[in-house]
């Protein structure tokens, strides 16, 4: 499907084709200006401070056991987290693809919510649930008359892994499910007719067909957990440190730029290699299969019912109880049910000039997330076409895909420094401009859109597109009536994650200076920086508001798809 | 439709390239950290008085603010920087990011706060990092409140203390510095020996102040189980119980147990509004601003004339002999101290 096809278009379409080419350059331009230029600037400054190359940082990483251990631990925990997350999400994706049950799309939205929570809040939620004085331990102690808390998970690797699954489950679930829903059942039906069932069906038919989506999900989860920062720091405690933590420490506390740059390059280089391997696998594995809409049905028989119930219980326990614990804590003050914390959010007793009413923070968050979503969906979709490389040389595009993943692998503090020193002269003096916030968010969100739609872009049958062109359809009509319906599910997933990334992100926002238009996570972060139970309660209340805003937005994004694109 | 969509995308993209629009009146940019705050009327009084508008730019924590000032030296993001403290002062001074200015208002500031003889930075406020304790817990268990750092390794305080990682947290670093000042780095019993004993005594180390205070401190949230935490001397006033009217926590301000952080403001080299910047520094030292500082930023004013708000006057303690470590020495040894600490605590 990648071979150069003879030009089928009529002369009138040539203008459209040029426009299309121009459009495809946009994501490259964006990446070059807002990612590579700042990044190379800071690396240049860090590694060549006096014009001579200072590679001492690399030597230190290689020769110090502590740094070698950090690299090993980072890979180790990311690998386990990825295997766990994808392994647990796969049966979930099956259930969501195959079965119809009430509340399905709401549940899918609920499962995505953990992704928006700032790590401090997630830590608070888990503390409230399974901390030494949390709901679970208190209940167990009451029930069995225990002296001390039976569940001791604070500052353990197990807890880090649990929270990584909590965070990333929805990423894997949604990416795999959206791809699966478009896979034709024919192959599976044929296999079934030939007598395959149970494990054999999974092993020889389903998994091979799903490999592109599974790999896409695994790649994202791996990057996310590889660069895990807050979760490892807050929940794992001091014994565990990832590369990202070391970069932050060297860049912020010690200000050892050569070492910070060397660590960043090790992280980026490692991720780039992983992505290169992954994109090659991905290409090899993409099955050119005619798509079809899968019809979900009610489960039949006790096996299917127990699979459905089992998965729903898992989602309930794993993803929803921490969120509920958070809601519960935000509603209780001194053992009494109250909305006090919510009411206080709009009061400014100290008359502070930088006070932000919650509605304004909600507005800021939605505005930034909206811009990010539009930018990321447009640029991400174009990137997916660029990477799918229809009719373009393979060797070029094979490098492009990993390149667009790199922003995910770059620590916020490094990129923040890059912005500071690179974007400092007009017309690009953006150092103190709010636009850096959505730009930084977009860089992180594009990979989500690409991963969500790329399997579907690759699976668009060229024969159908060609047929439509031959019949005289304009490129726009071809895209609107053939590509878009096929991509719609992937686009919704991508848009949802772009929105979510922006709503929940505060690392990058903290590393770019900006006039005061704080988002919800930043206000939460500030409340948590002040002593007093009231501030804590307000931070939890605002986190619940963040969850509600996201939930409503997810439902709306899904609406846009069903109204605007329609099923086919 | 596609045209409109395209136009929209191009507009969005173009918007990102539009440079800031030039302003007419003098607008000062104050670059500061995320904990900065000021009352609306205090700031507008300055604007009314001088006609100078103030735009506040916040970025990360004190360390981040200093780093970005160093990276943008000569082409600064703003005119005035507020928030460099004595643990990061040396880094800023070495990079020549400030121009000197001696404010007349310094007359009412005690000598101990003026660290830079060249006056490149002006002290604005100070805060002491001290242990906070849960008053009820110590009373209920008939426990004496520790009154020296070495008490903390006694078995009766086993598993009671939560501190922050000095690599990532500023109170964490302050507490480490207090132990360095107390036990020294050489000799039979150094700060590392103390820390090894502290670890043996089940100290809990968290990443940052908020997860220590709100996650593990008994008086921080419902979930906490540690009655001793590294926090600020200014924290207790915020734990006043509505029924009793008394704070539920107190600070331990015994000699040698607190580390004093002093926050400075400086005029950034390369500013085009040096005179206006000087006026802002003057104002930050004046009583209206200084009296606003405690309730907005939970720190104490350096101006001796400034009156403390009632809540602070009543419930906050100020250590008489806090620990200080020379700021040049902090910058020179920070990495080495923290790495040795990490080794010890992890071992």
Largest sheet of chain B: 11 strands, mixed
Question: What share of the residues of chain B does DSSP label as strand, in percent?
Answer: 15-25%
pLDDT averaged residue by residue of chain A: 84
Average per-residue pLDDT of chain B, rounded, comes to 90
Structural class of chain A: mainly alpha
What is the oligomeric state here? heterodimer
Poorly predicted regions of chain B are 16-23
How would you sum up the global shape of chain A?
globular
So, the CATH homologous superfamily of chain A?
Answer: MetI-like
Query: How many separate domains of chain B?
Result: 2
Radius of gyration of chain A: 24 Å
Strand tally of chain B, please? 11
Give short descriptive properties of this protein:
heterodimer; A: 568 residues; mainly alpha; MetI-like fold; two-stranded antiparallel ribbon; 23 helices; 3 strands; disordered N terminus; B: 347 residues; alpha/beta; D-Maltodextrin-Binding Protein, domain 2; 2 domains; eleven-stranded mixed β-sheet; 11 strands; 37% helix
